[in-house]
Structure formats: C-alpha cells, structure tokens
Automatic annotation (TrEMBL):
Similarity-based family: Belongs to the binding-protein-dependent transport system permease family. CysTW subfamily.
Short name of one Pfam family: BPD_transp_1
Stored PROSITE patterns: ABC_TM1 (PS50928)
Domain ABC transmembrane type-1: 71-278
GO biological process: phosphate ion transport
Membrane topology: Multi-pass membrane protein
Function: Part of the binding-protein-dependent transport system for phosphate; probably responsible for the translocation of the substrate across the membrane.
GO molecular function annotation: phosphate transmembrane transporter activity
Name of the molecule in the record: Phosphate transport system permease protein
Residue ranges crossing the lipid bilayer per the database entry: 12-35, 70-95, 115-139, 145-168, 259-282
C-alpha cells in the first residue's frame, strides 16, 4: 500500500500542473483580448467609440462604422435560439432522468453527444438547402432572422441538454426519495423538486449555450442573408458580428481591418456581459440534502 509520504510529491506535481494549465488558459484569454484591443485602436482613434453605435450604416471605406444593426442581429438570433433550445434541453434532461427507460436514455444521450460534435457548417448547409427554401415558400427571401434562430436552436440544444442532464444526475438521491415519501407524483418531483434543486447547473447550461450562440459564424453566415439592417420581422435578413468578420476580413485593409477588430471586441464584450448577468442572476448553488 502506498504511503502518504510517497504520494505527496506526485500530488504536488499534479497540483502544480493544474496551476500552470490554469495560468496558461488565463494568459491566453488576456492575450486574445489584448491583441484585439490593440488592433481595434486605430479605428477607435479615428472615428471614436460613439461612431460605432450611432453611424447610420456600415460603410467603413466611407468612414461610416455603424455596428448597431449587427449588434441587434447578433443578440436577437442568439436569444431567439436560446429561447427555443433552453426549455427543450432542460425537458430532455428531465426525460432522460425521470421518464425514459435506461436503454432509451443511454441511446438518447449518445445522440445528443453526437449532435454536439457535428461541425457548424453542416448545420448551416442543412439550413441552406432545406430550411431556407421552406421559409422562402412562406415569406421570401427565406434567408432570414427566423432561419438563423431555428438553425442556432438546433445547434445549441445538445449543449443545454448534456450539461443539464449532468447537473440533474449529480443531485443526491435523497431528493427523489423524499418527494416519493411525501406522496408526490413523478412530474411533481421532476419539476417542483429536481429542477429547482439543479438550478445552478441549469443556469450554467444556458450560459454555455448562449456563449456559443453569440460567437457562431459559419452556420449563420449561410442562412441569415447577411444584410446590414434593422430587422422589422422574423423574415428579414440580418447580419451578425461574427459573420461580418468572416465575410470581410479576407480583403479588409487599414481602417476597415481595424474596424473589424472593433466588431470582435464588441462581440467579446457581449459574451462577457452575458456571463456577468448570469453570475448576478444565478443562485448561489445547489443545496444538497443529506
């Protein structure tokens, strides 16, 4: 049997390795934000930060840098996708843990993990050849805010479902036994006891999904139409910040290129704002019942 003293050097090495990995990850994030800020500085110096919020259009070669239509498009498509995928993902997790037979739950979890690993361009291709024509038959042109919401919801649904399922699985069995002892029905235990108890993990699932939604590029580039405008309905084309960078970075130069880095900086701020809001609104954590 290994003694405590012989384990200590290995444990110290392991802890040191974890610390180095954490430090490397933190430095990488700082470096990315730092480079983005430095590259965005020329455009911010020439136009001023207010120009990116108040200019009446996105024409960087003409000195007009309005990002608000793209910021709105990014927020609308992300929140719309989350509004669809969030409840479905949580219900999927409840189904796996409380209603599905063991074999069905195992197969369903494998399916969700497989869907989570599919590249976004595949979802975009499906949306382009299947979903967009269906919407176009109803309300042209088809490539629209609605198409982006539906494709994005399908993309982030596995993320919500898998993380929510893990959060529910980690709850103590005493919660289920206590509810059953009180004579609660299965659906009452699931939605009145289990879901509130797992709220911290469910909030994490939603935040992770929202982060992926805000940064999604290829799929939305293929199905949203990419017009820089304020949408007046779900059927209007929009352009997101990430799609804007992907479309124009290949040929952008000088101030135009710097303005695209401002788009990236705004996108990073949106993700950070989502994390801060989630941290403020989320509960302190799950209280376990012994």
């Amino acid at each position: 049997m290994t003694s405590i003293s012989s384990r200590r050097p290995a444990e110290r090495l392991f802890v040191t390795g974890l610390g180095l990995c954490g430090a490397a990850a933190s430095l990488t994030i700082v470096a990315v934000i730092g480079v983005t800020t430095v590259e965005a500085t020329p455009a911010l110096s020439v136009a001023g930060p207010q120009a990116f919020l108040t200019d009446d259009g996105w024409f960087p070669l003409s000195g007009r840098f309005g990002l608000m239509p793209m910021i709105l498009g990014t927020v609308l498509v992300s929140l719309g996708g989350l509004a669809l995928a969030g409840p479905m993902g949580i219900v999927s997790a409840v189904f796996c843990n409380h209603y599905a037979p063991a074999a069905v739950a195992t197969a369903y979890r494998l399916l969700l993990k497989a869907l989570a690993g599919i590249p976004s361009v595949v979802y975009g291709l499906w949306g382009l050849v299947t979903l967009v024509p269906l919407i176009a038959a109803w309300a042209p042109p088809g490539a629209s805010l609605l198409a982006g919401i539906l494709v994005l919801a399908l993309m982030i649904l596995p993320t919500v479902a898998v993380v929510a399922d893990s959060a529910i699985q980690q709850l103590p069995p005493a919660l289920h036994r206590g509810g059953a002892a009180l004579g609660m029905r299965r659906h009452t235990i699931a939605f009145r006891v289990v879901v509130p108890a797992a709220r911290s993990g469910l909030a994490t699932a939603l935040v992770l999904a929202l982060g992926r939604a805000l940064g999604e590029t290829m799929a939305l580039l293929m199905v949203t139409g990419n017009l820089v405008q304020y949408p007046s309905s779900l059927f209007d084309p929009v352009r997101t910040l990430a799609a804007n960078i992907a479309l124009e970075m290949a040929y952008a130069q000088d101030i135009h290129r710097s303005a695209l880095f401002v788009s990236g900086l705004v996108l990073a701020l949106l993700v950070a704002a989502a994390l801060v809001v989630a941290e403020v609104l989320a509960p302190d954590g799950t209280r376990h019942v012994d």
